[in-house]
Structures are given as structure tokens and as C-alpha cells.
Automatic annotation (TrEMBL):
InterPro entries: Tmem135 (IPR026749). It comes from the Eukaryota. The keyword Membrane applies. This is Uncharacterized protein. The chain crosses the membrane at residues 43-66, 78-97, 137-154, 161-179. Keywords: Membrane, Transmembrane, Transmembrane helix.
Length: 448
């Protein structure tokens, strides 16, 4: 038997010509290399594991710790549909994104030739555009949009909306950081930054809370009432067995606004909330108050309140000055003195004496407490509150008939946000905050 030895250089040339033959075309959305499929699979598994662990932590582990119910915690983790939905969403999105990104990037590199090598600045810029924009940025956007239907694996619509709004605000932060990194924000004054979103958001919250409480997100209402004692909150001494249930925040706000707009000496008329919200009465010297607020009026009789507005606004204390002192003392303890002072000053301006537009100014001034916080935290906190502003504005647009909700709109929001986030993640990773939660998660999932 005769053995024929092949020159290694000739074999390498033959192997390269065979693998680059036009007949060796990749499958749709899958690279021809098995390594890419294995990489995408690892990425999907990491994403599923991380998201499932986060869902189990918030849905099962933390409630078990708070309630001290540890029996069957492992079984509850394994049967929690919400955690599996979150993991399936993250895992499917990461897997599809990686496969589609590699395939589109491969196609562009194959059919769009890079500029010829040269020493000129224009040639270098063109090469950089080809490398970052054509082979990374555009494939990342397309891959994120194609993989976005995986968001529907999350069963709760409320959680999908919360995540979509959070990612939208983070996408805004990332885009701003990328523009700043590239030098496009140099025209802005140094004192101006993302912190300005806090006063703008507070002005929107204040006006929406006072004039359109039905458009306020429940989370925002709970945050406002939970930190405004003794204002618009149930007094500890309120006895529901004697006076009936304490009214909702929306009922209290409607009654307070109608009372503050009425002439001095006017008498309240108890009526259903929908009628009181219309703020119309044909009887002179009267104003409408939701029926549920009658329980507060009965409980605060003889406490020395100056008006029905005061009874609804601070039922715990009959003195306006006393209620203000309690509020400022409580807020000083959490080190938000400027917010306390400005908010207390705004409380002195009764709604009947200040136009509706004045509440925007009150909220804007109250939002200046952000200037007391550390500059490094201002952008993160501002974008955290921005999502509430977006939801308030959207609900008011829907209520006014200028917009309407569409099916799977949260999926479209998620797809657009992730397209911006992943596009910058692939091209300008230095523009993202390395210590942020999303940045850490993306690095853990997509970087081998």
C-alpha cells in the first residue's frame, strides 16, 4: 500500500476554497458555523437562569421571608408560572437575538465590502462606519425587533407594562450617554442634565393627581399618599366600625378640589363620585362632595378645621399649621428638607386661589429637591420617575381622545427599547453605566 503525503499549504488552500464555495450557504437566520449555534444556546440558558432566579426572588423568596412561610418554598419556586414566563421571555429573546444578529452581520459582511485600505481620514471614518454601523448597530436593531415577540411569554400584562416602561427610560439614559460620549451634547450647559426630568415629572404628577386622579398610576398614588402623612391619608384614630370605610384617594382629591373652588360659606352636597367629578351644581352656595367623603366629615366634626377642604386634606389635625409642622418634621427626618419646604409652601396656596396651571409650577418647584442628591444618582433617579410621567401623559391622552391603546403595544415598546439598548451595547459599550443593573445583566448574558 502506498501512502501519499499532501503539502500542508496546499491542503489549507483547498480547504479554504471548499468552505467558501457558493454552494455552502447558511440556513436562514442560522450561521453555517456550529460554534454560533452553541454560543447562542449558552446565551439563552444564561438569560433564562438569570431571569428565572430574579422572578423567583421577587415572587416567592421575598414574600416567604416577609411572611416567614418557608414550608414548600422549593415547590412554589418550581411551579411559579410568573417566574417561568419571565425566564422563557429572557431566554427566548437572548437566543433569537444572538442567532439573528450573527446571521445578519454575516450577510452584510459578505455582500458589503469594506472600504479600501488607506491613510486618509475619510477612509478611516468609512471603515469605522462599516465596522460599527453596518456590521453591529443595524444587525443589533433588526435582531432585537425580530426577537421582541418573546416578551409575550410574560403572563401578567401589568408586569409587561412595568418592564417595558423601565426599559424605555433606560434606553433614554443609554442614548443620552452615547450622545454625550460622542460629543454631541457639548452644546448643553454643564449645570443642565437629566435631573431636569424630576421637576418636569413632578409638575405633571401634581396636576394629574389633583385634576385627573383616574389617570394616575396606582403605584404613584400609593407612593404619594404613603409619604404625605398627615395629608390625604387615613388618620390612625379613624374608626371604620363607627364612621364607615375611609374613602379612596380619588374621592378625597375630588372633594378637596371642589371645596377649595367654592365660595366661602358654601355647603357641601354628598353625591356619587362620577357626579362630583363633573364639578357642576345648579344650587348657589353649594358644592359637590363624593358620598364616601361623608365619613371623613362625620369623623372630624368638632376638631376645629377651618373648612371642608381642611377636613379632607388633613383630617388628623384640625390646625393647618399643626399639620404642616408634622409633615415637615417627618420629611426632615428623611433628609428632603427642600422638598418639604417647597411643598409646604404650595399647600398654603389653596386650589381656589391658584389657577389650574399653577399646580404645574408647584410641582416643578417641589421637584427641585433632586439638586440635593448626589450628581451620580441624579440621572438614575430622574429616569426612574420618568416612567410615571410617561404613563400619566399617555393615560391623559387616551382620556382626551388623542390616543388609544393598542393590543400588544407593550411588546412594541419593549422591541423599540431593546433595539436602542442592544444597538448601543454592541457599538458603544463604554457609553453605558457599567454599574447599572441592566448593564451588568447584559454583560453576564451576552459576553462569553
Amino acid at each position: 500500500m502506498q501512502t501519499i503525503l499532501i503539502d500542508p499549504v496546499e491542503y489549507a488552500q483547498w480547504f479554504k476554497s471548499e468552505t467558501q464555495s457558493p454552494s455552502c450557504t447558511p440556513l436562514p437566520f442560522v450561521s453555517s458555523h456550529r460554534k454560533n449555534i452553541a454560543t447562542a444556546t449558552r446565551v439563552g440558558i444564561r438569560a433564562f437562569t438569570l431571569a428565572f432566579a430574579a422572578g423567583s426572588l421577587f415572587d416567592v423568596i421575598l414574600p416567604a421571608i416577609l411572611k416567614r412561610r418557608f414550608n414548600g418554598i422549593l415547590r412554589r419556586m418550581m411551579t411559579n408560572a410568573s417566574s417561568f414566563g419571565l425566564g422563557a421571555c429572557a431566554g427566548s429573546f437572548a437566543l433569537l437575538y444572538k442567532l439573528v444578529f450573527r446571521h445578519i452581520s454575516h450577510l452584510i459582511s459578505k455582500h458589503v465590502s469594506p472600504p479600501a485600505a488607506g491613510n486618509t481620514v475619510d477612509t478611516a471614518d468609512a471603515a469605522q462606519i462599516h465596522e460599527k454601523v453596518l456590521t453591529k448597530f443595524l444587525p443589533a436593531i433588526a435582531a432585537a425587533l425580530i426577537a421582541s415577540p418573546a416578551f409575550t411569554f410574560i403572563p401578567q400584562q401589568s408586569r409587561r407594562l412595568a418592564l417595558a416602561l423601565y426599559l424605555l427610560t433606560y434606553a433614554g439614559e443609554v442614548v443620552y450617554a452615547a450622545l454625550e460620549h460622542a460629543g454631541y451634547m457639548a452644546w448643553m450647559p454643564k449645570w443642565l442634565g437629566l435631573w431636569i426630568l424630576i421637576p418636569i415629572g413632578c409638575s405633571q404628577y401634581t396636576h394629574t393627581f389633583l385634576h385627573h386622579p383616574d389617570c394616575c398610576p396606582p403605584t404613584l398614588i400609593k407612593a404619594i399618599t404613603g409619604n404625605s402623612s398627615p395629608y390625604i391619608s387615613r388618620p390612625p384614630s379613624f374608626d371604620a366600625t363607627t364612621f364607615g370605610p375611609f374613602p379612596s384617594t380619588g374621592s378625597v382629591v375630588v372633594g378637596m378640589i371642589n371645596s377649595s373652588r367654592a365660595a366661602k360659606g358654601s355647603m357641601p352636597i354628598l353625591t356619587p363620585l362620577s357626579v362630583a367629578a363633573a364639578r357642576s351644581t345648579s344650587l348657589a352656595g353649594t358644592f359637590l362632595v363624593p358620598e364616601a367623603c361623608g365619613n371623613i366629615l362625620k369623623a372630624t366634626e368638632g376638631m376645629g378645621h377651618n373648612s371642608v377642604t381642611c377636613q379632607l386634606f388633613h383630617p388628623e389635625d384640625g390646625s393647618c399649621l399643626g399639620a404642616m409642622s408634622k409633615f415637615m418634621k417627618r420629611m426632615m427626618m428623611v433628609n428632603i428638607s427642600l422638598y418639604s419646604t417647597l411643598t409646604a409652601l404650595s399647600f398654603l396656596m389653596k386650589g381656589g386661589q391658584v389657577p389650574s396651571a399653577g399646580h404645574y409650577l408647584n410641582g416643578f418647584l417641589g421637584g427641585l429637591w433632586m439638586l440635593l442628591d448626589a450628581p451620580k444618582r441624579q440621572a438614575t433617579i430622574a429616569l426612574y420617575f420618568t416612567r410615571f410621567m410617561i404613563e400619566c401623559v399617555w393615560r391623559r391622552l387616551v382620556k382626551a381622545g388623542y390616543a388609544r391603546n393598542i393590543r400588544y403595544g407593550d411588546v412594541l415598546l419593549f422591541g423599540g427599547s431593546m433595539a436602542a439598548i442592544m444597538g448601543i451595547f454592541e457599538t458603544v459599550p463604554a457609553a453605558q453605566h457599567k454599574k447599572s443593573l441592566v448593564q451588568s445583566a447584559l454583560t453576564t448574558i451576552f459576553v462569553d
